[in-house]
Design brief:
The chain has two helices and 20 strands. The protein is mainly beta. The protein folds into two domains: 4-152, Ferric Hydroxamate Uptake Protein, Chain A, domain 1; 162-243, Sandwich (Immunoglobulin-like), CATH 2.60.40.
Length: 244
């Protein structure tokens, strides 16, 4: 039996040591389901060391790992998750590298399709709690990282692309804003995406073959979210645009 990940916050001494060494970064977290539905809106969480229950055991998870970020998202009201352990997790975070998220928000992996994570647009090559970091190079999550959990519709080349949208950080009220949408593959390589719907305030537009579109800013100053969606692809993290 595998227990649903409703993390406790009792830390092992080893987890505390790793948390002190690596820090507990503040990251952006978002969870997107199989239809592209947002199961957890982009939010700021602290990827602190924690523990999870797996198969009746309490397993330590190091700070600054994608699983720590997911646990923090769940603790902040995000969807619950369930784990399998293909190793021997326990009181030391170094033994949790083979924890595997097989269910999230009530959606359970099916065949080759299932849950994957990306950090700053790049798919992880290690387990979500691996203390060697998402790329296995010893680099854990840094503050400001974007941690995306999404349902991968697997095919020969990997998962469907995840969208990224960019534009100027600020714009005058009522002014035009040129934005670009790219679709990132598993390695984070981007290509222009045509037909993506970009939204800023109440305005929206569709991107051309170049991946570009023009939007018009609201007439009221403030901070607004810029986002992009397209059927069959994973929606973008929202970017904040200051209307001055």
């Amino acid at each position: 039996m595998t227990a649903v990940g409703s993390p406790a916050h009792a830390h092992s001494s080893v987890a505390q040591t790793l948390a002190t060494a690596a820090g507990a970064p503040v990251v952006q977290s978002m969870v997107l389901g199989s239809t592209g539905a947002i199961l957890s809106q982009a939010r700021t969480v602290t990827a602190s060391a924690t523990t999870v229950r797996v198969g009746g055991r309490s397993c330590a998870v190091a700070a600054a790992t994608p699983l720590a970020a997911l646990a923090a998202t769940t603790g902040a009201g995000g969807p619950g998750f369930a784990l399998r352990d293909y190793g021997r997790c326990g009181g030391s975070p170094v033994d949790s590298g083979q924890l595997f998220v097989y269910s999230l928000g009530g959606e359970t992996n099916r065949g080759q399709n299932g849950w994957e994570y990306k950090v700053d647009g790049v798919s992880g090559s290690t387990g979500a709690a691996d203390t060697s970091g998402p790329s296995g190079n010893g680099r854990l999550l840094g503050s400001g990282a974007q941690v995306l959990w999404f349902w991968c519709a697997a095919y020969g080349g990997g998962c469907q692309r995840t969208l990224a949208v960019s534009g100027a950080a600020s714009v005058r009220r009522g002014g035009s804003l040129s934005v670009t949408v790219t679709g990132r593959d598993n390695e984070g390589r981007g290509a222009p995406v045509a037909g993506a719907i970009v939204t800023l305030g109440s305005d929206f537009a569709s991107t051309a073959t170049s991946g570009r579109a023009t939007l018009y800013a609201p007439t009221t100053p403030g901070r607004y979210q810029l986002s992009a969606t397209r059927r069959g692809l994973v929606p973008s993290f929202p970017e904040t645009i200051v209307v001055r």
